[in-house]
Specification:
The chain is of the alpha/beta class and 370 residues long. It has eight helices and eight strands, in the order E-E-H-E-H-H-E-E-E-H-E-E-H-H-H-H.
Length: 370
Amino acid sequence: MTLSPTQDPIDIPHGATIRRPDPSRPFVAMSNRKRWSQCALSGVLPQLKTPSGPEAEKGTAVHLVGEWALHRRFGGNSPNDPPLITPPAGLKDFDYTDRGIEAWRAEALANATTYADKAWGMVSDLKSPSVCMVECKIDNVTIHGVRVFTIADAVVWNAAARRVIGGDYKNGRLPVGAGTADEPNPQVAGSIVLWCDQAEHLQPQQIGGFVYQPNTLYGDAWQCWGVTNPDQAAAWMDRERTKLHTELAAVAHAASELAAGRIVPPAPGDHCTYCPSARWCPAAAAYGHAALQVEAGTKAVVDWTPEEVMAIWAARAAFKTFEEDLKERVKMLQEANHPAVQVKRRAGNRIWAHPPAVVEALLMADRPDL
C-alpha cells in the first residue's frame, strides 16, 4: 500500500526537503518534461528535493563560462576575461593540484567557446543581426490551469528572417541528444513553443534546436536540427503546441483528481529513474509488493499475466535509484565508522585481471610452470 500524498515517509535523507504541490495550483518545470509528459501523476505528487552535490555545483560553474561565451559571441555586454571558476570540494577523481585546476578551467573555456561558436553558426548565414537571450526565463505562462516554468539556456532570434533557435548546454555524461525536427528534445521544443507564443510577432518561419553535451558518454557532443520552410515551421509549431497542451491537460486532470482525493493511474517507465516522487508513487509500492510476494513464495513470476509482467518491468527503474541510494548510504556510514556497520574482511580467490597478458609475462620470465 502506497503512502498517502498527504503523509511523509520516514526515510528523508539528511538535508532534504519535501515540495508538496498545491493541486489547486499545479506547477511544472520544462526541465522535467520528459517525466511528467509521460506520467502526469508525477507532476502533482509530493517531491523529494535533495541538496545539490559536487557534480551539480561543478556543472553550474562550467555553465557560467558558457553563458559568458554566448554573450561574447553575440556581441553582448560581457567582460573580456571569462569568469574564474573554482571546483567544488568532494569531486571524485578530480585533480585538485594547481595544474589540474588550470587544466579544468582551460577545458571549460574550450567547451564554452565551441558551444557559442556552434550556436552562432545556426544564424551565421543571415545578414541581419541576431540576438541571443542567455538563460531565458519564462515563468508567466499558465495552460489548462497549470503554471509552466522554464529557463532556456539559449534562445536565438533573428527578427528579419523570423528564425528562432532553442538550445541546451548539458554537462552530464548520460547522453541527452537534440532529437530531430519530427521528434525533438522535449525540453528544447517546449521552450521554443513557450517563447514564440508570448507574442504574435514572435511566430517563426524558421526553427532550429540544438543540444551541446561535451562530456557525453557516446554520440556527438553537438547535435542540432532545423526547419527552414515557413509552411513546415507553422506545422511544426502547431504539432508541438498541441503536444504540449495535451500533456498539460493530463497534468491538470491529475491535479483535479488529487484535490478530490483520487489518484490517476501512474505510467511507469524509464522516466521513473531518479523520479523525486517515487516514495509516494502507487507503481513503486506495487512493485515492492510484487517482489515480496515472489520472495515469500506466495506467487511466482510465471503466474503473472503478460500485462502484469510489463507493468512491473516498467517500474523497475524506480528501484534502481533505491538500490544506488542504499549503497551510498551504507558507504557513508562505513566511512563514518558508525557502530551499526560491521565490516568483515576476508581473503578472496585471486584472479588475473587480464589472463593473456599474464601468460605472456610468465613466458617472458621463463616460468611456464606457473
